[in-house]
Design brief:
Layout (H helix, E strand, L loop, with lengths): L7 E2 L12 E4 L3 E7 L5 E7 L6 H12 L5 H4 E6 L4 E3 L6 H6 L1 H8 L4 H6 L3 E6 L5 H4 L5 H16 L7 H16 L8 H7 L16 H4 L9 H18 L8 H12 L8 E8 L11 E8 L3 E6 L5 E6 L3 E6 L5 E12 L2 E12 L24 H29 L34 E6 L2 E4 L11 E2 L20
Parallel strand pairs: 3-7
Antiparallel strand pairs: 1-6, 2-3, 3-4, 5-6, 5-7, 8-9, 8-14, 9-10, 10-11, 12-13, 12-17, 13-14, 14-15, 15-16
Helix pairs in contact: 7-12, 8-11, 8-12
Length: 489
Amino acid sequence: MDGTEGNAGQPGPAERSHRSSVSSVGARAADVLVYLADDTVVPLAVENLPSLNAHELHRAVREVLQLPDIALDVFALWLVSPLLEVQLKPKHQPYKLGRQWPELLLRFTDAPDDDVAMDEPSLQFRRNVFFPKRRELQIHDEEVLRLLYEEAKGNVLAARYPCDVEDCEALGALVCRVQLGPYQPGQPTACAVREKLDSFLPAHLCKRGHGLFAALRGRGAKAGPGEQGLLNAYCKVKEAAGGDSGCEASLSTHYRAYLLKSHELPFYGCAFFHGEVDKPAQGFLHRGGRKPVVVAISLEGVHVIDSREKHVLLGLRFQELSWDHTSPEEEESVLWLEFDGDNEGTPVNRLLKIYSKQSMGRPCPGPWLTAQASGWPLSTPQAELMSGLIEYCIELNQTSELAAPQETVSGPPSAASSLPSSAQRPQLQRQGSVVCSRLQHLSTIDYVEEGQQIKRVKPKRTTSFFSRQLSVGQGSYTVVQPADSLEQG
């Protein structure tokens, strides 16, 4: 979802291949190709394809893969191309949406007309954005764990999930264990890792020299920093898995370990949108401009990620923000995020303006949020989609919190109950970590209250412009209803 319109956005792993999911169409039957996270294909021979909905195709995939019932909640069907990703609701008809793909591209992307004409989506079986991370650790079916592992691995290797070097090495070591088996001292492990380095680490950590010196690098040459760190971490996986008993851990153990480590990334399992933010003014002429960003929204909060630098610019839990969206009669709409900040030592409220493409023209049967019962208007700008997703995630969280005490009393203990909860897991707090906010790289609007007027910058206000936020009392964000006489400075 590099953007979620249903969840819609512009892709990451989708860039690996550009393929069609309908291989042949007859009077009544069609061969449908559904792609898994590891790029393998599930062929389905179906009748009356144009009338089939996503729920029926989802069931067919589960039957072929012999997945347990939990897979209905874990995974969803997606339409994915290099230009757009869409998570389908159960009632959506993939064939019809595929036929309307050019129209969706025109409404939700800025792709050139030539690219739109050539683009064709594939049908993919991927993680459901609304499936909570905590429930993943209660899954025991190896194939379900494997599919989740493959998807998370693809996002890490594609740098869709920005990771610090240490975490890339730890995650890559688990991939080594899965693909190469236990680490064996004295075996040509370094050569095997070096030959497939881009299968274990993101591309920016696999850079090697070019030319004569690279050609002269022999089999026994010293490994580069990323490669050596990977080998060191790989060596430790065996100790953690097999211990002194000498028995090897099952693949399920390593899949689960990979997911547990991935859960430390605040944007794991997010829906991704593309947008732009203002750059801070620089130089004598105070020129700013805009920078492309990815807005990652999950059940836990919102993260704004620099598309080029692959690091977080802003990370907020829902308890820490207010938000709203505006949809001007122009080419772009805006998502506003408001949060507490500091301006030269004085507390302020900050506004971040995220620009997104405006949906124009006549309504289209758009792909909206999977679990939303009521649906949205058919003509919806991405800012409104992001705003709606934030609101829906908060509603899901509140519903889960109400149900949690009942589940604790009535639910049987599981093997996963001894694992640390998401609240207990260590957070990434390294200085300079790619998951830490970089507010200095953002241009925000700071506001302060002076008497009965809200004025721009020169800080300190407790009044929110927006009514959309988590219920008072559940978060740290303090809201005072604005008086009628307040006005923007």
